[in-house]
Specification:
The complex is a heterodimer of chains A (about 450) and B (about 475). With about 450 residues, chain A is α/β, with parallel strands linked by helices. Chain A folds into two domains: about 70-80 and about 350-445, Aspartate Aminotransferase, domain 1, CATH 3.90.1150.10; about 85-340, Type I PLP-dependent aspartate aminotransferase-like (Major domain) (Aspartate Aminotransferase, domain 2, 3-Layer(aba) Sandwich). Helix content of chain A is about 35%, strand content about 15%. Chain A has helices spanning about 10-20, 50-60, 85-90, 90-95, 105-125, 135-150, 165-175, 195-200, 220-230, 250-255, 315-320, 335-370, 395-405, 435-445, and strands spanning about 70, 130, 155-160, 180-185, 205-210, 235-240, 260-265, 280-285, 295-300, 305-310, 375, 385-390, 405-410, 410, 425. In chain A, the strands form four sheets. Chain A has a seven-stranded mixed beta sheet with strand order 2-8-7-6-5-3-4, sandwiched between helices. In chain A, strands 11-12-15-14 form a four-stranded antiparallel beta sheet, covered by helices on one side. Chain A has a two-stranded parallel sheet with strand order 1-13. In chain A, helix 9 links the parallel strand 5 and strand 6 (about 235-240). In chain A, helix 3 packs antiparallel against helix 12 (about 335-370). Chain B has three domains: about 1-70, no CATH class; about 90-345, Aspartate Aminotransferase, domain 2 (3-Layer(aba) Sandwich), CATH 3.40.640.10; about 350-470, Aspartate Aminotransferase, domain 1 (Alpha-Beta Complex). Helix content of chain B is about 35%, strand content about 10%. Chain B has a seven-stranded mixed beta sheet with strand order 1-7-6-5-4-2-3, sandwiched between helices. In chain B, strands 10-12-11 form a three-stranded antiparallel beta sheet, with helices on one face. In chain B, strands 8-9 form a two-stranded antiparallel ribbon. Chain B is globular, with a radius of gyration of 25 Å. Classes of the chains: A alpha/beta (about 450), B alpha/beta (about 475).
């Protein structure tokens, strides 16, 4: 086996040094009764050539934006990935290291995480960000738990326009913590219904969660939500599933959010069927010591040089055990590095330009689709790069028909929203050329491509 | 003895914000091919102040320099106990980057995602076979999230059976994530003492009608097999509880013994440990969870199913604990782990466990007597020494820092908590006898230095890019981001 260097001679010599006769003797502490007395029922070893052949044969069974015109979004987005990212993260000093427990030989990771934290603060308009979380949904769940700890209240208000997968993960994390989860309705324009929120807010409400933009691509009035939440002492969590929007939209911090939890996949990470992605998590200064996850801080070494360390570890499970702010141990280190490289390359101009392109392409697609007989737009609030389309013909039939033309037209909404069973969610990014959008329109019209 | 640590030309590098120059850019986008549009002005932000403006060259050089300040498994020996820092095969990296696997959207309809679903299904099956458990969910993102998943399943099972138990037993050797997870599932933690391994008597004394589960790690964090595990599982079951196994140390057992056969009800795997996927400077990991037949209905959804012809994503069952992640977990990590299992094969996995245990015992044989060994039972994949009787007022931290000067990543230190000044060494199977000998020579030399010239340890490291860092000030006055002029 090419990954294991031992020769038979090495093994003999090592066993002698240990003072046992056979490899079997090393396992004497494992009772006979629990030993596996047969080989594992797995296939035999394959060579590198065979492995890659097998995996490529699997890969061609998948539809991707390289094989289909894709308008799928809903929390995972097809965006430009600069070539530089993969080449830099392939430096094995980055990807074969572990958590920077020994700062003297981990300054590369530590400085990059410090830069990630700084970039997330700039984007979200918040005071402090952690070293990353598993994904946007689990970051959102951790934000809810943090708000519950801070307010010592038990009622959690979730916008129905928040990504339904985020709502599901919040529900899982809260399952046995005796919390009350309440939905806030969606208004006719596709924003969360402010009147319904105000009616449901009370002095037992710990936290309100809204998406920004929300699942329907609509841009919420975060300031109004912050104001209403704060009047009853509740915290406002703003969940950002499509952070390219932050290149253009007012930052959640500026609008009064208390915690921003989001998904960084759009920042240069491949879609990879859902992961690994990278959650981000940002808070106000006063709440830093209550936040979950790893934090990197700046300090100096014995000789006065600038350096970075993991810090405020007394919040964490390896010190606080059952009293920790979360059970989280790892972060998504390499994914955070990818996002950091992406944001460094795009920079001030690039992020805005990319956001503007998404906005313009989605607006163009919306305008074109709205004129097709049998289809209509459902919401009219301000939108970023996604929107909801209603179909007179059954959604499943429409989507299947378009698949045959090589188009993945959108995500059906019926499973998550029974009242939108005749609707699907369309996403248009800077990666969709005008010709692709025109092809989508033509296919919906019944034209042949 | 050859000291592999040395000093070469190391380049300084500013923060990327400090390189920024207004007007520079490091990207290109196609020209907009549709009419421009604008949002209402009140929704839009001003330009993001002090956001970086860099050229592509600036960025490439910046991160390349940062990388040289890191130490990875590819740099050298990384005996970080309980983290299983084995070699990360390169073909796995190529596998995860095959376009059809890398670029598929998670909401792609199942019939257009058959390749990835088949891979996930095969991986679920392989992990079930390796662990002796009935069914595996791949959704959890990391070990700690796997623990959370597993303990949610435990609680869901109890509630479905009308049981209102409130406590979880956790041995003093456990990882901190175990008690933190138990809290997150609404349980109170009852710590129990072990004497190297858990005794049936100790479990019996605490196992009552209010205990939902016992969380064990096997082999435990001392590198010892829990010899009473069968009797303990039987007792916990008889008294209405379940047994959770932290699978962090599965690297000792592949093809040798299976948690499911010992009576374990639920366990998590760490694909980034046992199954060779890279640790990425702190993630991404992947923490699948396996369960016995009776717990299957409670697993998170969706999982991958196969009807003999097609692979499908089965919606969560009515009793499921719910979704753990927005999508299907860290699929890119799963591709790497699958590639590893295929490359190794059944015999290769067993050989890996055998060589991992051989290596740990070899290090132990070479260092016993030089460093204090608090627990004498036969070690499996890792060995825990302590700093007792080190000379020159030197402690574990000093040994760790001095190892850096010699060119090694230090072991895990001060864990497990049951050993004062613990030095926890896990060599893994991918290290040769020569590497282990060089490392042991360094450890022996350092023990000598502690007696004869302890300042070498107290001052260490001196060859790294930075010296020891002031962690107290970092925590007292946290500076967690760059600010202009600060």
């Amino acid at each position: 086996m090419r990954y294991i260097p031992h020769t038979a001679g090495d093994v003999t010599e090592m066993l002698e040094r240990i003072g046992v006769g056979t490899l079997e003797d090393l396992f004497v502490e494992i009772p006979e009764s629990v030993r596996l007395k047969r080989p594992l029922d797995l296939s035999e070893s394959v060579s590198e050539t065979e492995l890659l052949r097998e995996l490529k044969a699997l890969a061609v069974k998948n539809a991707t934006p390289e094989t289909h015109k894709s308008f799928l979004g809903g929390g995972a987005y097809h965006h430009f990935i600069p070539t530089v990212i993969d080449l830099l993260i392939s430096r094995s000093e980055f990807y074969t290291a572990y958590t920077p427990y020994q700062p003297e030989i981990s300054q590369g990771t530590l400085q990059a995480v410090f830069e990630f934290q700084s970039l997330i603060c700039q984007l979200t308009g918040m005071d402090a960000a952690n070293a990353s979380m598993y994904d946007g949904a689990s970051a959102c769940a951790e934000a809810v738990l943090m708000a519950v700890r801070l307010t010592r209240r038990k009622r959690v208000l979730l916008s129905r326009a928040l990504n339904p997968r985020y709502r599901a993960v919040v529900a899982t994390y809260c399952r046995y913590l005796s919390l009350e989860l309440v939905d806030v309705a969606v208004a006719a324009d596709g924003r969360t219904d402010l009147a319904d929120l105000i009616a449901k807010l009370d002095d037992s409400t710990a936290v309100v969660v809204v998406g920004y933009p929300n699942y329907f691509g609509v841009i919420e009035d975060v300031a109004a939500f912050a104001k209403a939440s704060h009047e009853t002492g509740a915290r406002l969590v703003t969940a950002v599933a499509e952070p390219i929007a932050l290149g253009l939209l007012k930052s959640p911090g500026e609008l009064g959010a208390d915690i921003v939890a989001g998904e960084g996949q759009s920042f240069g990470l491949p879609l990879a069927f859902g992961g690994p992605y990278v959650g981000f998590f940002a808070v106000l200064q006063k709440d830093v010591r209550a936040m979950p996850g790893r934090l990197v801080g700046e300090t100096t070494d014995l000789e006065g040089q600038r350096g970075f360390v993991l810090t405020l570890a007394t919040r964490e499970q390896h010190i606080r055990r059952e009293k920790a702010t979360s059970n989280i141990c790892s972060n998504q280190g390499l994914c955070a590095l990818m996002a950091t490289i992406f944001l460094s390359l795009l920079g001030k101009q690039g992020l805005r330009e990319m956001a503007e392109q998404n906005l313009a392409k989605a607006a163009y697609a919306r305008q074109r689709l709205s004129g097709i007989k049998g289809f209509s737009l459902v919401f009219d609030g301000p939108m970023f790069n996604e929107f909801v389309v209603r179909s007179e013909a059954p959604v499943a039939d429409v989507l299947t028909r378009l698949e045959a033309s090589g188009i993945l037209a959108g995500i059906p909404l019926g499973e998550d929203y029974p009242e939108l069973a005749d609707c699907f969610l369309v996403c248009v990014t800077e990666q969709n050329q005008r010709a692709e959008i025109d092809a989508l329109v033509a296919a919906l019209q019944g034209g042949v491509q | 003895m050859t000291i592999i640590g040395t000093s070469g030309l190391v380049l300084n590098e500013k923060l990327l914000f400090e390189h920024s120059d207004p007007g520079r850019k490091g990207y290109s986008l196609p020209k907009l091919d549709v009419p421009e549009t604008a949002l209402p002005a009140e929704l839009c932000r001003e330009e993001i102040s002090d956001f970086p403006e860099l050229s592509e060259v600036d960025v490439v050089r910046h991160f390349t320099r940062l990388s040289t300040w890191n130490y990875g498994v590819d740099s050298g020996f990384y005996p970080l106990g309980s983290c299983t820092m084995k070699y990360n095969p390169k073909v796995n990296e190529a596998a995860a980057r095959i376009p059809g696997l890398a670029y598929i959207h998670p909401a792609t309809p199942a019939h257009l995602a058959q390749g990835t679903l088949e891979l996930m299904y095969r991986l679920q099956g392989a992990l079930a076979e390796i662990s002796g458990l009935a069914r595996v969910t791949l959704q959890p993102a990391a070990g700690a999230q796997g623990e959370l998943t597993g303990m949610l399943v435990v609680r869901a099972w109890h509630e479905a059976h009308g049981s209102k138990r409130t406590k979880v037993l956790i041995p003093d050797t456990a990882h901190g994530t175990n008690p933190a997870t138990a809290s997150l599932t609404g349980y109170d933690v009852v710590p129990i003492a072990s004497d190297g391994v858990l005794t049936l008597e100790e479990v019996e004394a605490h196992m009552n009608d209010d205990v939902a589960a016992l969380m064990v790690t096997n082999p435990n964090t001392l590198g010892l097999f829990e010899t009473n595990i069968e009797a303990i599982c039987k007792l916990v079951h008889e008294r209405g509880g379940l047994v959770y196994c932290d699978g962090a140390n599965l690297n000792a057992l592949m093809g040798i013994a299976r948690p499911g056969d010992m009576g374990i009800d639920v366990m998590h795997f760490n694909l980034h440990k046992t199954f060779s996927t890279p640790h990425g400077g702190g993630g991404p990991g992947s923490g699948p969870v396996g369960v016995t037949e009776k717990l299957i209905p409670y697993l998170p959804g969706p999982g991958v199913d196969f009807d003999g012809e097609n692979y499908s994503l089965e919606a969560a069952k009515a009793d499921s604990v719910g979704r753990m992640m927005a999508f299907h977990g860290n699929v890119g990590v799963m591709v790497r782990a699958y590639a590893y299992i295929r490359s190794m094969g059944a015999a290769g996995l067993k050989h890996a466990s055998e060589m991992a245990v051989l290596n740990a015992n070899y290090v132990r044989a070479r260092l016993e007597g030089v460093y204090d060994l608090p627990y004498k039972s036969r070690s499996l994949h890792e060995v825990v020494f302590s700093d007792k009787d080190l000379g020159g007022d030197c402690h574990t931290l000093d040994v760790a820092k001095r190892l850096i000067d010699y060119g090694y990543h230090p072991p895990t230190i001060y864990f497990p908590l049951v050993v004062k000044g613990a030095i926890m060494i896990e060599p893994t199977e991918t290290e040769s006898q020569e590497v282990l000998d060089e490392f042991c020579d360094a450890m022996i030399a350092i023990a000598g230095e502690a007696r004869e010239n302890p300042e070498l340890l107290h001052q260490a490291p001196v060859r790294s890019r930075v010296r020891r860092l002031d962690e107290t000030t970092a925590a007292r006055k946290p500076k967690l981001k760059w600010e202009k002029g600060a």
